[in-house]
Design goal:
Strand order of the largest sheet: 1-2
Keywords: Cell membrane, Membrane, Olfaction, Receptor, Sensory transduction, Transducer, Transmembrane, Transmembrane helix
Protein name: Odorant receptor
GO molecular function, one term: olfactory receptor activity
InterPro entries: 7tm6_olfct_rcpt
Number of strands: 4
Membrane topology: Multi-pass membrane protein
Number of domains: 1
Number of helices: 10
Length: 337
């Protein structure tokens, strides 16, 4: 709750500061660009908090599923958030230090005193801005880490399903073991991708799927994060527009101002690329179940198992996707547009 108050305080004082410079176009655009980052963080956090109960249910189900995550994927989950946090902190710190040296405000904000009167006032104002913004930024990166970690978890489990599918070998001697493994694969596929109501005529034999629609995992995941990705896409779009406008308006003598725009644009595009890359990977991995089924030794299977495998292949042709508010899909194609 305290971090929420700090975030709103930052938006309030920077909003007043932006309004005070409404007649200076360059300063106005510069302030809008820098405060856009905070609005992006706050809005994504707000939607995340609103869906926290659904997210808690999803995470508990994943924890209780017994799924294992590879060590390489764990390292990627950790290194991703460390790199993004370190890079963002470095950029923000560099521009704050540069503004302090030049005797300027990093972001124009209302203060109960004149921040440009002397160095002491300037340092105090910088500290106040840092105290209100830094917790907001780190909280946003923590949320991003949770989102990306769940996506990586899905990708890792889909990789596991593909490996297990390719390794299925049928023979008269291992018929029971093979059918049990196939049953486990399909149950996990149901849980991850979107097939519901699998029934069995006997303890080992499979019947057909009775219904196909979004699974509990994929439905919950899409429902929880669709607003999150919508805000992400809108923020990047606005950032691109502001940067293009400032590049065309600002002169070469305002190199530091242009550098700040390009730095924030770089971070926005980097974060957008991460989400789109993970979304694209998720699509490829979920469709890869069909390829893995084709790669298995299905030609030697009984006709009944081949029919069940065909249903799995048809189901895998509808991949798991990350939706940005139902408007667009998070993938490399969306990023390139």
């Amino acid at each position: 709750m305290f971090i929420h108050v700090l975030s709103m305080l930052y938006l309030l004082i920077t909003g007043i500061g932006t309004y005070e410079f409404k007649n200076d176009f360059v300063v106005l655009m510069s302030n809008l660009d820098k405060t856009l980052v905070a609005y992006n963080f706050v809005l994504k956090t707000a939607f995340f908090v609103l869906k926290r109960n659904d997210l808690k249910i999803l995470i508990n189900e994943i924890k209780n599923s017994g799924d294992r995550v590879s060590e390489g994927r764990k390292r990627l989950m950790i290194s991703h958030i460390i790199v993004i946090t370190a890079l963002s902190t470095s950029i923000v710190s560099a521009f704050c230090l540069l503004s302090t040296v030049r005797g300027e405000m990093t972001v124009e904000a209302w203060m109960p005193f004149n921040p440009l009167k002397n160095k002491k006032n300037l340092l105090i104002s910088m500290q106040l801005l840092a105290v209100t913004f830094i917790p907001c930024m780190y909280r946003a990166f923590a949320i991003q880490g949770i989102v990306c970690t769940i996506i990586m978890y899905f990708c890792d489990q889909l990789d596991d399903l593909q490996d297990r599918m390719r390794n299925l070998v049928y023979s008269v001697e291992n018929e029971i073991t093979m059918k049990k493994e196939f049953k486990d694969i399909i149950k996990k596929h149901v849980r991850l991708i979107g097939l519901v109501a699998l029934t069995y005529k006997q303890d080992i034999k499979f019947s057909s799927y009775r219904k196909m629609f979004s699974s509990r995992y994929s439905k919950q995941f899409t429902s929880i994060f669709k607003e999150f990705f919508l805000v992400q896409n809108l923020a990047v779009t606005i950032e691109l527009c502001l940067s293009a406008l400032m590049v065309s308006v600002a002169g070469l003598e305002q190199r530091i101002l242009l550098a700040s725009f390009l730095a924030y644009l770089f971070m926005a595009l980097l974060n957008a690329y991460i989400f789109c890359y993970l979304g694209d990977t998720l699509i490829i991995k979920s469709q890869g179940i069909a390829d893995a089924a084709f790669d298995s030794s299905w030609t030697s299977w009984p006709a009944k198992l081949q029919k069940d495998l065909l249903i799995v292949i048809r189901a895998a042709q509808k991949p798991l996707k990350l939706s940005a508010g139902g408007i667009s899909v998070m993938c490399i194609q969306t990023y390139s547009q």
